[in-house]
Amino acid sequence: MKTKLGLLYGGKSAEHKVSLQTALAVIKALDHEKFEIHPIYINEEGQWIKGPQLLEPAETVKELVFTAENQIAPAALAPSVFHADRQNDTAFDVIFPLLHGPNGEDGTVQGLLELLNLPYVGNGVLASAAGMDKVIMKNIFAQAGLAQVDYVAYIRSEWEKDKEAAYAKVEAELGYPCFVKPANLGSSVGISKCRDRQELEAAFAEAFQFDRKIIIEEGVVAREVEVGVLGNDEPDCSVAGEIVPKKDFYDYKAKYEDGETALIIPADVTEEEYQQIKDMAIRAFKSLDCSGLVRADFFLTKEGKALINEVNTMPGFTPVSMFPLLWKHTGIDYPQLIERLVQLAIERHTEKQQIKYTF
Question: What tens digit of pLDDT does each residue of 54-95 get?
Fold first, then answer.
């Protein structure tokens, strides 16, 4: 019997378009002999819209964007139909959230799926929420003893109360250059590199358009190296890859629009450097209680010291994105990677069913 797979994509997020790219890539790669594929599109207003079952691999993005005529309530995925009539139109075996950013990658959708007792691909509520918030994530990494760059954080009201004090603190504790980022966003949206006070002031205003909390990180002269982590309680690491942006940093346009970036896989690192990165990536994975997948991003200094930058709990997932490419070079191609993630979701869900809720 085919696995009935519900794909969640789109989302009320600045990363909506990125999610559409991911959904299209996954649909094209899925084996229609193994999976019965049902698209569930979340539009930019947050409405959930169920599309018709996808019968062919070669769907287009336009066919994945549906009107609100077929809007459903998220509760339509409820467990009351999960193990009931197998022909029921909403009896999914697994949900695959292909959502990036807030309202999808941040634990909100994961919490809903937990309440509905549905198996789903990827990280749980805690890991998703902590991994989305760069400030919380870095605080946890610090507690775990993972080396990272210095940082400070602000919420909007603190900044508005005394902007001069905020800028002065950044200059005193971090200096220039530094990077200003929204705390809860990915895909390099709203990120600015600052070399002086004028750029810092503009960067604060830019980042606060996308979040009520921002993080400012010390600039460091280093290579950008990434690894993929795959698994549940006993995760594995991929080979390392290096990002070489032709611009100052790996921004949104470089990632998704103009291709102004070189991805070098495998990265030219020593065995000692790789083992250091691998160990830190797995420690980071476990410190956040991750499951399924993460991409772990590092700075590697010329002295060979690794500094963890962040983990992404739902990394870019097209065939040309770093995470799938890392695993391809490790020996797991794109269709196999998707199937492995579905297996991990089922394994984790089965394990959770052993938990007692009465005594």
Answer: 887 655 556 788 888 889 888 887 655 444 444 445 578 999
Helix ranges restricted to H, 87-174: 108-115, 125-132, 134-143, 156-161, 163-173
More confidently predicted of 265 and 81: 265
DSSP 181-202: EETT--TTTT-EEESSHHHHHH
**Torsion sign over Cα 336, 92, 49, 291:** negative
Q: What is the reported pTM?
A: 0.88
Indicate the residue type of 28. Answer: K
Under 8 Å between Cβ of 140 and 290:
no
Angle between helical axes of 134-143 and 271-287 (0-180°, round to 10): 110
The domains located in the chain, with CATH, are: 3-120 (3.40.50.20), 150-218 (3.30.1490.20), 222-351 (3.30.470.20)
What φ, ψ does residue 349 adopt, rounded to 5°? Answer: -65, -40
